[in-house]
Amino acid sequence: MSSNSDDIQAAGSDTRPPMLDRTDYESWSQRIRLYGRGKENGLLILQSIDQGSFKLGTTRNTLGTTPEGSVLLRPERARTYEDLSDTKKKRYDADVRATNIVLQGLPKDIYKLINHNIEAKSIWDNIKMLLAGENINEYYVRFHKLVNDMRNIIMTMPNIQLNSKFVNNMSPEWVRFEPVVKLNKGLKETNHEQLYSYLKQHEKHAAHSLGLASAASCP
Predict the structure, then answer these.
(1) Region entry Disordered: which residue ranges (predicted)?
(2) Alpha carbons 179 and 164: distance in angstroms, whole number
(3) What is the CA radius of gyration of the chain?
(4) Following CA atoms 54, 56, 62, 63 in sequence, which dihedral angle do they give, to the nearest 10 degrees?
(5) What is the pLDDT of residue 86?
(6) In percent, how much of the chain has pLDDT > 70?
(7) Which residues, 6+ apart, have CB-to-CB distance to 25 below 8 Å?
(8) Which residue has the higher pLDDT, 208 or 135?
(9) pTM of the prediction?
């Protein structure tokens, strides 16, 4: 049996899901759910996104019976795909499809930031935190956790690339600050902790700027 991760990389028969527009997360999230709902076992796909993946768990095979008729069981082992009932196989397959649908709807910059996740709910939650009104402290905590996760699986990335991802994936109110940050804080010499400290000082200004921009766009 192939692993969940292998299945995700191999699958790709769907027509392409709606592509995420970073400035219109709410519309994308609704369209991607409609897209998933329209696929085979669509309700299971949405269940995977909302509730998390099906856990294979463990099982014990029957060894035999005692003279008295009691059942003897082998030691507990990890359950495999082949052990599942047809209903649970559909649930497992829906997890793989859900992950593919969400990942295929992401632009490359966001995909590269979270593609070490293989569960649809984890990916979905990270995208929501990234684009749906996350403040700078929440963003920093989430980004820092992603960096630690990368280090735990011995995945390295040049400092300038990490810093660029940190700056380029901030929520919309920070967009106009990106050139200033890149100019004033050398992305090669600094780190994302220092970038956070710098940006934290300007959080109120960023929120105020977003409010002015929103007001100006109203008819």
Answers:
(1) 1-23
(2) 11
(3) 22
(4) 180
(5) 95
(6) 79
(7) 127, 128, 131, 132
(8) 135
(9) 0.56
